Structure formats: structure tokens, C-alpha cells
Request: fold
Amino acid sequence: MSDKKTPSEPVPAATVLLLRGGEKKLEVFMVVRHQQIDFASGALVFPGGKVDKADNDPRLKARVEGCDGMDDAARAFRVGAIRESFEECGVLLARPKGSRALVSAEQLGPLQARWQKALVEGKATMADMAEAEDLVLACDLMVPYSHWVTPTFMPKRFDTWFFIAEAPADHLAVHDGSESVDSTWISPKQALADLEAGKRTIIFPTRLNLMALAESPDVPSALLRARDSKIKTVLPWIEEKDGDKWLTIPEDVGYTMTRAKIDAVMRG
Reply:
């Protein structure tokens, strides 16, 4: 009889790389996870979290843009990413129905007061907010960036889509003070330098996505590169070599780094 455990089913999750800087520079919004959170505690991460069942509410089919031809799961990942960015940092990628302009900072404040806490506490859904406020979610701005699945040996697993989007210039991104305890707009190169200097804890997928993002000098370049990329699912595994254990990914998924020692990964 085999003593191998059946891998747990990965939970759908969505993460957002919110960018600013226009054609002059590139910064990404990142938050520091609360030490008591059970996943990536204390780490510098992009806003994100689990995709809720309500992110697939049928009412949202008429309240999204950019999802034509997508199945329900693909749409739910994008809705989840928009919801998480609103819940975690107060950035709302949505438009008043009939408008091409995103919700303004003036409109955002009252929306936060009415809906942000209710969404976090599960007392309201994105469909509730979109219908009550006559909003359309700007899924057309959510550009797929990468797709990671937690290794099979981990007890808690996630099926995570990373999206990249330019943050509205007038939305003030801040951490929520609950799941995240600090936040920063930071260049990818600076975040990686802080990791190397021991100033930051950054988990493996975040590190590799920062490395990829650092190859773009500005926001338009990063968005164009993402739109032109073919996304391949990344499912890491462990290899043993010369007495060391390495967390490893395929060489053809678009990253310049394909493995890291397990002890280094656990330290961030």
C-alpha cells in the first residue's frame, strides 16, 4: 500500500500587479502580509486572494466588459482580481455604466464607505455593488500575466492567475490594515534588491514575477509584453541534486530563473 497522500485540490485565487508611472517609469503596488495570516505571512506580495463563489454570480455577466467568449471560470478569476484590489487597497477598476472613464476618486470615496467593509466581511458581493451602483467591472483592463499552481506536496494549494493592470491615477492605493499591515509603491528592481539585502521576504512566485516585470522600463512596455505573451501554467516540484533540495519549474515558461534552494525559498 502506498503511503503517498493524495494532493489537495487547489483553491482558485487571483492576484493583481497594479502599475503606475506611465511612460517615465514603472512601479508596482505591493503589500506586507499580516504575520498571523496562514499563507505568506510577513511577506511582500501583490494584492490578491481566493476567488469567491459569488465572483461567478450570473448577474455579473451583464456587468463586465472584456469577457466576451470567456467561460464562467475565466470571468470569475477577473472579477475576483478586481474585488481583491478594491478590498485590499481601495482601487476599483470599474466604470459607471455607459461611460468609458473609470470611477473617479470623487465617486470612489462614497463607494468605499458603502461597500468595502461589507465585501470584506462577506455581507455583500460584487454583483450586489455593481447592480446597486450601476457599475460595469473593467475586466478588459485585467491582462493575464502568469498562472501558478501550488506544488502538490503542499497541504494548502492555490490555482492562481496573476493579472497586470494600470492603476487609475487618482485612486489612492493603501493597505487594509487587516490582512496586510504595510504597503508600498516600489520598482521591481528595488524590491528584488531589498530581497537580496535581507530587507524583505518575498515568496518564489512573487520573486519570479518581479524579475519578469523588471525587464520592462515603463507601464506601456509591461502591458504590451503581457498582451503578447503566451501564458503557460507553472507547477513547481522538488529536485534533489548534490545533497540539496531545489524548488524547480520548467525552463519553457518564460522566467530566467528556474530553481531555488528549498531553504532559501522558505526564508523568502
